[in-house]
Amino acid sequence: MNWKIKVPSSTSNLGAGFDSIGLALNLYLELDVTISEEWEFVPTSACLEGIPSGKENLVYQIVEQVAEKYGKKEELKPCYVEMKSEIPLARGLGSSATAIIAGIELADLLLNLDLTKDEKLQIATDIEGHPDNVAPSLLGGCIIGHYDGEVQYTKIPVKGVTFVAVIPDFELKTKDARAVLPTQFSYQESVQASSVANVSVAAICQGKWYLLGEMMQKDHFHQPFRKSLIPHYDELTTYLRSQAYGVFLSGAGPTMIAIVDDKNVFSALKQWKSDYPSYQWLSLQVENAGVFVDRIKSEV
After folding, report:
1. Does 88 carry a binding-site annotation?
2. Does residue 12 have a known ligand-binding role?
3. 89 annotated as ligand-binding
């Protein structure tokens, strides 16, 4: 028996939805898993060059955490795992979240846990600390979630828009991006920040992308502080907004994402690539299905 596990990437925050709003995108981490005599992780794509090949690998560490949670670590069977990814590491596109979801799915398969989606999400959020990346990678679509030890969430349909990722050639670690954030807000600042987030959620629910774009520019939670870590942030935002509904910092960055009407994305992207050739440009769609697992029986 072997398995294929395919996990979509994600973008999070969407402006003011800090640590609570995320969206699954059609870039994927794929695992081809076979029972073996020892744990081995083999990268088959450039994005994963240099990843740990043994038990230091994040996927294994998640498998082990899940096994320990259910008291079944001794039942784990070693695996040979080929890993392929289209997701740039440390760019704000949920690469670590995909590894967490992949690890939970692999543990579920190896240990016959028969976990529900909600159980998997609870485990993933306990590990990650917030649901905005792991929930979309697990469930697909746009997820608005809350976590205070227990996860509550809702899934919102998204259609008619393309998410154009603008990826620079440098990494930004989440811990560094979090280090620049304030430790507290005043009462009045909190009211302003939450009101922007509230309108953002309403705009997503009603598909009012222009309104969402306006709210993204009014974010109080993270973009005003993190943009100092992103060269040309203000320049690119102003430039992209001339043809996009809105522009936001994907996760902790440094990737920026422009929300573009499906009918206009081809012409806009052609111009953007010409004007800013040093960036990697990806035209991405919402992945509504979430993680996919295929059980493959070995031929006798």
Report:
1. yes
2. no
3. yes
151 and 213 share a domain?
Answer: no
Give the number of domains in the chain.
Answer: 2
Q: Are both 227 and 126 inside the same structural domain?
A: no
> In this structure, are residues 87 and 98 in contact, taking their beta carbons and an 8 Å threshold?
yes
90 is in an annotated binding site: yes
Is 125 annotated to bind a ligand? Reply is: no
Provide the residue range defining the domain that includes 280.
161-284
- Is 94 annotated for ligand binding? yes
93 is in an annotated binding site: yes
Do residues 128 and 206 both lie within one domain?
no
- 133 and 216 in one domain? no
pLDDT in tens, the chain (300 residues): 699 999 999 999 999 999 999 999 999 999 999 999 999 999 999 989 889 999 999 999 999 999 999 999 999 999 999 999 999 887 889 999 999 999 999 999 999 999 999 999 999 999 999 999 999 999 999 999 999 999 999 999 899 999 999 999 888 888 889 999 999 999 999 999 999 999 999 999 999 999 999 999 999 999 999 999 998 899 999 999 999 999 999 998 899 999 999 999 999 999 999 999 999 999 999 999 999 999 876 544
Q: Which residues, 6 or more positions from 20, have their beta carbon under 8 angstroms from its beta carbon?
A: 130, 131, 132, 144, 145, 146, 197
Q: Say whether 91 counts as a known binding-site residue.
A: yes
Distance CA 99, CA 53 (A): 14
Is residue 210 classed as helix, strand or coil in its secondary structure? helix
Q: Is the peptide bond before 254 cis (omega within 30 degrees of 0)?
A: yes
Question: Are residue 136 and residue 205 in the same domain, yes or no?
Answer: no
